[in-house]
Write a structure and sequence with these properties.
By secondary structure, the protein is an alpha+beta fold. Among the domains are: 161 residues, no CATH class; 73 residues, no CATH class. It contains twelve helices and 18 strands. A six-stranded antiparallel beta sheet has the order 11-4-16-15-13-14, with helices on one face. The chain has a four-stranded antiparallel beta sheet with strand order 6-5-7-8. It has a two-stranded antiparallel ribbon with strand order 1-2. α9 packs antiparallel against α10. The longest helix is centred in the last third of the chain and has 31 residues. About 3% of the residues have low confidence.
Length: 458
């Protein structure tokens, strides 16, 4: 899809893509800022304003606590303005006046008069509530809808892939990768997304045996339908959810078949049930896959009914492909926490690869890419959209914890220095740091959005 096709797609579905993105971002920003707000109120700090968006105010009201709640024109963030926290360096002033001019009541409600522990709690509350929100979403889904789980088993092996090269076989079950237990095929995909072309230690269950395999996936680059590039490692395992259309088979071992050889293909497959053999499957005029398979007769009981069907499937797995597992609430919470942890670790590892130069920084996405993803998730349905919101909430919380001035993590870093030194870091140092942080963040935002546009144009 080229740039003009993307523009046409987004333009013709403006409400779907743009509306979905703004809605999800607005909800997540509200939750993040509400975390700051509620803990500030608990700590006795007066909240002057609660804004969703920046720029010109388009709607506002003042509540009984004199907090101005407003929606602003540019819906790409938000903020909570605390009394006594009027500039990025948290200078102890009010409206340009000196602190000693404040009344006792005003000092009681000022942010700067609170202990470093309370100030830290107020700042930390924003990212933490993003994590809690994501955990709540995942817990509800795992409890009431169930968690989609594809078993971590190789139904087949792609010919010529790393999996074949390093000795994987059909029906191998991956139980551990580099010391991390694997519970689903999605876990394998996630590990390979991060592995790129680095060697990994796989612990495999093969029948009654445990086999150790040290394999290096093949690093590949792929484009999504919008043209955004993603790097990941390809191992070459086929998940249990796959089945093969008999009419797409053009070769079995060294025997080739024509378009009219359906019955002969069917007979040769039937004679090989319980054996390991190679097939070549057509994917189009100029594309095909070679697969190493070991189909079982008991999983193909309707195989001989092909006369009654225009499309007969060969099931190559020895177990069911997909399952939705519902958990008791307390187990669902643990699964949700573990999922949030895995997503955070994966994000940090990918960022570390970018810093080290093993992954391209062009994979960083901006508003256009996030909006495209949000629209695609909306097309897939409510569950996919909710899962996307949970993922975005986790990343919003994680990014805000980075020790960069202007972000919550930057404030927390100064509070840690304050605890160590026994006094606040000087106003001048804070001011310079926050200016540098602002320049850095603006630069990152400009780079990611320009990167999105360039990838669409190329």
């Amino acid at each position: 899809m080229n740039f003009f096709e993307v523009v046409q797609t987004l333009g013709s579905n403006l409400w779907l893509y743009g509306g979905t993105f703004i809605l999800i971002l607005g909800i997540l920003v509200f939750i993040h800022e509400w975390g700051h707000y509620i803990v500030a109120r608990m700590c006795g700090v007066q909240v002057e304003a609660f804004s969703i968006g920046f720029g010109k105010e388009i709607f506002a009201f003042v509540d009984k606590n004199n907090t101005r709640w407003k929606i602003a024109l540019i819906p790409l963030g938000g903020y909570v303005k605390l009394f006594g926290d009027v500039d990025p360096a948290t200078v102890d002033v009010k409206d340009g006046e000196k602190p000693d001019i404040l009344t006792e009541a005003e000092r009681e409600g000022a942010f700067f008069t609170k202990s470093v522990w309370k100030r830290g709690a107020i700042v930390l509350a924003g990212p933490m509530i993003n994590y809690l929100f994501a955990i709540l979403i995942l817990t509800c889904l795992f409890t009431f809808n169930g968690r989609p789980v594809t078993p971590p088993l190789a139904a087949a092996i792609i010919g010529g892939s790393s999996a074949e090269k390093y000795g994987f076989q059909p029906h191998d079950e991956v139980v551990n990768i580099d010391g991390k237990d694997i519970g689903s095929f999605e876990d394998i995909r996630r590990e390979m997304m991060l592995a790129l072309d680095e060697e990994r230690h796989f612990v495999i269950k093969r029948g009654d045996k445990i086999v150790d395999i040290f394999a290096k996936p093949e690093r590949i680059e792929s484009k999504d339908r919008f043209g955004f590039v993603h790097s990941h490692g390809l191992l070459g395992l086929i998940s249990p959810r796959h089945a093969i259309d008999i009419k797409s088979i053009i070769k079995i071992n060294d025997t080739e078949y024509g378009a009219d050889d359906f019955e002969r293909v069917h007979e040769d497959i039937t004679n090989r049930f319980g054996e390991t053999f190679t097939i070549e499957v057509s994917k189009g005029e100029d594309s095909s896959d070679i697969l190493l398979i070991h189909p079982l007769k008991e999983f193909n009981e309707t195989f001989n009914n092909y006369e009654d069907s225009d499309k007969e499937l060969l099931f190559i797995s020895n177990i069911e492909g997909d399952a939705f597992i519902k958990y008791a609430p307390h187990i669902a919470v643990l699964k949700a926490v573990n999922e949030s942890w895995d997503i955070s670790c994966g994000t940090l590892e990918a960022l570390g690869q970018m810093i080290a130069g093993t992954r391209s920084v062009t994979e960083l996405g901006g508003i256009i890419r996030i909006g495209a993803l949000a629209g695609d998730m909306a097309r897939q349905g409510f569950i996919a959209l909710v899962l996307f919101a949970a993922l975005l909430s986790i990343n919003l919380g994680l990014i805000n914890l980075f020790p960069i001035p202007m972000l919550d993590g930057g404030h927390l870093l100064f509070y840690i220095f304050e605890i160590i030194l026994g006094r606040p870091v000087s106003d001048q140092i804070q001011e310079y740091a926050f200016r540098a942080g602002l320049v850095f963040l603006v630069g990152i935002m400009a780079f990611t959005n320009l990167n999105d546009i360039m990838q669409l144009l190329l």
